[in-house]
Amino acid sequence: MRHSGCFKKQNTSDGQNMDITHQRLLLAAQGYSELGLPELALAELAELPEELQADPSVVETRLSVFMQAKRYKDALQFGQKLCRLLPEKTSGFIHSAYCLHELGNTQAARELLLNGPKALHEEATFHYNLACYECALGNLEQARAHLDVSFTMDKKLRDFAKNDPDLSVLHESGVIPQK
Prior knowledge:
By secondary structure, this protein is an all-alpha fold. It has helices spanning 20-34, 38-46, 56-68, 72-85, 90-102, 106-114, 124-136, 140-153, 156-161, 168-172; strands at 10-11, 17-18. The longest helix has 15 residues, at 20-34.
């Protein structure tokens, strides 16, 4: 999540104002995360005052840092918190489901996506990830259907799918040609 205009106050989703010092800590955390330095990113986030720790932008940044570090159990906690804070925001559901899948609970990942906000259905990532989960659960027809929708919505996903191990069953059956 990138923010521009770091010299003005940012209105956060829960109505608090984040001052420039706190905004800079958040931006520094995001920068460290992008550089692949999750511990430094988390240290920056820890410097934020307690009242800002539940701010959706802080929660989402912490979620992103943990996911990038492949700390899915930690990431899941913040993904679920983001879902509670902003139930209409699709990213919390997509990321939480991905964490559940990576933790071996693909059925729960599938259910979370299917029971998430209706806006999810308008996103290619929803259909692509659901295809991966359906494939892992052995529901190949549903996987193919969701994959087709994702490809229609975002053509770049077709190339990504060629090397996705979650879709290996579809690779082997020739549904997705590899390289």
